[in-house]
Design a protein that fits this description.
Low-confidence stretches: 1-10, 16-32, 40-53, 83-87, 349-370, 503-547
Number of strands: 55
Number of domains: 5
Number of helices: 8
Mean pLDDT: 77
Shape: elongated
CATH class of the largest domain: Mainly Beta
CATH topology of the largest domain: Immunoglobulin-like
Helix content: under 10%
Length: 761
């Protein structure tokens, strides 16, 4: 959001022998050519009982400095606001004392805590621009009960000719003495505060009740307390952590204790790219409260009292405090914070059991008041829930309307499937729970297709009351990611090989030699994937009795097509050599368009059929134990078709019994390597595959649908009768051979296969 300067008031210099004040009353004649400073009456000295807003606009004294064309100080004078006569302050030096026709840069510094002599020593303009000022109690400015706290705000500005109208961005030097001292000219100066103002509002949620007790209090951590008197250069902020404050001047409670507001002031600070712990400015606040919780199993309410409940809020979202800006921070508290001041609960994410805060400068200007709309998040997640009324918070200067602009999911081929037209079928909606500020309730049935549902919404001020966002209406866009209990994403494979294929071996092989003849398969992929050479990566087959049978070949896939009936699929090639082949390149076999995607399955909850937990690995393979067979990794990937193992007679020719088959498959997964591309086309190597557990295989079979029944999230991967798990063979109820469970005991076929998995966190 654009940050507008918060203009305090204007000082006018009247150069002439006689004039009228801003209030329509005559100014005392004090001699020809006297210089009068006319100021708004509310900028005069504040009374002892004055309200804080008046303190922010009050003036104690002004340092006025004139620099000639060479940049040398010609005159400095400090004038006290207490000497004001009907809204005017007169300088001791007259116009006739200034050089005729000489132009001067005129600077004003109000309310400085520095001695006047310090300004008099600023002989060059640059001395003034680099003049530092500091106050460790800047945050308590105007607090009359604290004697060391500043009572007024440091302000500065440069004068310009009033005839220019609007304040120019670049100001020019001004001729004070034109040679005719009876000629009236007027110059103006707009003063701006050197400090930033921070307003923090904490609202109570439905589960808590705030208590305004003596325990309540706050302090600012890493508060910047130094500045330069003029806004010309940047400076290195010095930071301090003042003691905890309990002050009615800055800590305001609603009569019903429904919210508390803290007001503080600090000097400019930019800590982008620096450690937040060491340089970030935050508020530490203790809000005693009562917390009511409900047992989800019994529905019984429990009430807990917390005398200490500490929270920490970052005070600038952009890690910057600018001079003369107001920073509004808001949050809703709906859970107790920390009981120790040294470890406050950070109000940053819902995982901390407190709500995030909105932190933005509010545009100030115009009699209609601030016009603003902000939300606390651009994106958030709903995990296995249909209603979320706590994550999204808004603040608006007028009521808001919310429209669902887009709803989609990413299917098993990586294609975006738009379901916006069906939003009503899924009960998707978003409703503000308050008129101007509060929570937004988001509703959407939990996805049943094992994909992440993406919901885009627009929150806007419907100025035209037509239910549509029109040009010029303030708005914020929010993306909601809704997750089911099990959800699946995918990534495209590029090429595959095995780690145990070595180019240095005279007879490269997969496991062991069975005769002298071996069938060789191999590939060499350069950065473009276009060259294939058997001397780079040799791959070998496990063969039996000099048979040419093999069960796996290295594969490579083109980039997936983007449109048409094969959208999301890749063209697949197999590479291999025949027995005793002397060819310098492997033969290439087209396998047509195939789904070459690795699927990433996340399981977030245990069920009656499986237990979520990372399976145990023993001797570099998945442990075959019965307890391990029930485990499902909370995050595992399934190898793509590039790891596809040829089933049927080939495996029957290679292995002699179940034990040998298990060894072959376990070793295959241990040695299998699949490579994909990152967003820049660089290879990502996955070489930590393993046999799946029985429970993991059953989950895959359950999710994949059948050969004639599509599933949104995962393709039909497993079609053989049996798949090898760590604990033995697992029957596939969705096999292509139409073998029933009752026929398993007498099954004598060779439809055995393996689909490797890997843990992915």
């Amino acid at each position: 959001m654009k940050k507008l300067r918060y203009i305090i008031y204007t000082i006018t210099l009247l150069l002439g022998i006689g004039c009228s004040s801003d209030f329509g009353q005559p100014v005392e004649q004090l001699g020809a050519g006297r210089i009068a400073l006319q100021i708004d009456s509310k900028a005069l000295v504040a009374s002892r009982a004055i309200a804080s807003n008046d303190v922010e606009a009050a003036m104690s004294h002004i340092d006025v400095l004139f620099y000639d064309e060479s940049g040398t100080l010609f005159h400095h004078e400090r004038v006290a606001a207490t000497t004001a006569y009907q809204g005017s302050i007169y300088l001791a030096k007259s116009r006739e004392n200034f050089g005729v026709g000489v132009a001067y840069n005129v600077y004003f510094v109000a309310n400085s805590t520095l001695d006047a002599e310090v300004f008099a020593q600023c002989q060059r303009e640059d001395d003034l621009f680099k003049l530092p000022e500091e106050n460790e109690l800047i945050h308590m400015t105007g607090q009359q009960d604290v004697s060391a706290a500043p009572q007024y705000f440091l302000m500065d500005g440069q004068a310009y000719l009033a005839s220019l109208g609007e304040e120019p961005e670049v100001k020019s030097a001004i001729v004070i003495n034109s040679g005719n001292v009876t000629e009236d000219i007027s110059i103006k100066c707009i003063l701006r505060r050197a400090a930033a103002k921070v307003v923090v509002t904490l609202n109570k949620g439905g589960n808590v009740t705030f208590s305004n007790t003596p325990q309540a209090g706050y302090y600012f951590r890493n508060m910047p307390y130094n500045t330069l008197v003029m806004d010309r250069y940047t400076h290195d902020a010095q930071l301090i952590t003042p003691q905890k404050s309990v002050s009615s001047q800055f800590c305001y409670w609603e009569p019903d204790n429904s919210k508390v507001t803290v007001v503080g002031y600090m000097y400019s600070h930019n800590h982008k790219g620096q450690s937040f712990f060491e340089h970030g400015t935050s508020l530490i606040i203790n809000i005693p409260l009562t917390y009511t919780s409900i047992d989800p199993n019994t529905g019984v309410e429990s009430v807990h009292n917390f005398e200490n409940s500490y929270y920490q809020l970052q005070l600038s979202k952009d890690e910057v405090f600018e001079r003369n800006h107001v920073y509004y921070v808001s949050a809703t508290i709906n859970a107790p914070g920390a009981e120790e001041i040294s470890t406050p609960a950070i109000i940053e994410q819902t995982e901390y059991s407190v709500r995030e805060w909105v932190s933005e400068s509010i545009d100030v200007g115009g009699e209609a008041g601030p016009r603003y709309l902000k939300v606390n998040r651009e994106q958030f997640e709903m995990r296995n829930i249909a209603v979320d009324s706590s994550s999204l918070v808004f603040a608006s200067s007028s009521p808001v309307t919310i429209s669902i602009t887009n709803v989609y999911y990413i299917d098993k081929f990586g294609q975006e499937q738009n379901i916006t037209s069906s939003a009503d079928d899924y009960n998707i909606s978003a409703t503000p729970l308050e008129e101007f500020a509060g929570n937004i309730e988001v509703r959407s049935n939990v996805p049943t297709n094992n994909t992440i549902r993406y919901i885009e919404m627009r929150i806007f001020q419907d100025d035209n009351n037509n239910g549509v966002h029109d040009t010029g209406e303030l708005y914020e866009d929010v993306l909601v990611l809704q997750y089911p209990v099990i959800y699946i994403t995918n990534i495209v494979g590029w090429y595959s090989y095995r780690d145990d294929f070595k180019s240095s071996d005279s007879k490269p092989t997969t496991f062991k030699y069975r005769g002298d003849n071996i069938t060789r398969v191999g590939l060499d992929v350069d950065n473009t994937g276009s060259n294939w050479n058997p001397n780079y990566v040799w791959t070998g087959d496990y063969v039996y009795n000099n048979s040419s049978a093999y069960f796996w070949r290295s594969k490579v896939a083109d980039d997936p097509v983007t449109s048409g009936s094969n959208a999301g699929k890749s063209y697949l090639y197999y590479y291999s050599w025949g027995n005793n082949s002397s060819a310098t390149e492997a033969s290439k076999t087209d396998y047509g368009y195939q789904n070459c995607r690795m699927y990433h399955v996340r399981v977030t909850a245990t069920s009656a059929d499986y237990v979520v937990g990372r399976p145990r690995i023993t001797d570099n393979v998945t442990d075959p134990g019965e307890d391990n067979a029930k485990l499902v990794s909370p995050s595992f990937m399934i190898a793509s078709r590039l790891g596809f193992v040829t089933t049927g007679s080939n495996i029957g020719a290679v292995v002699k019994n179940n034990e040998e088959r298990h060894t072959v498959f376990a070793d295959h997964c241990r040695e299998y390597v699949e490579v994909c591309k990152d967003s820049n086309g660089n290879p990502i190597v996955y070489d930590d595959w393993r046999l799946p557990t029985d429970a993991e295989l059953n989950i895959i079979m359950d999710l994949q649908g059948t050969s004639s029944q599509n599933a949104d999230a995962i393709d039909y991967l497993l079609n053989a009768v049996f798949y090898e798990s760590a604990s033995g063979r697992t029957f596939n109820t969705k096999n292509d051979d139409d073998i029933e469970q009752s026929e398993v005991a007498g099954y004598s076929g060779t439809s055995y296969s393996v689909r490797c998995v890997r843990d992915a966190y």
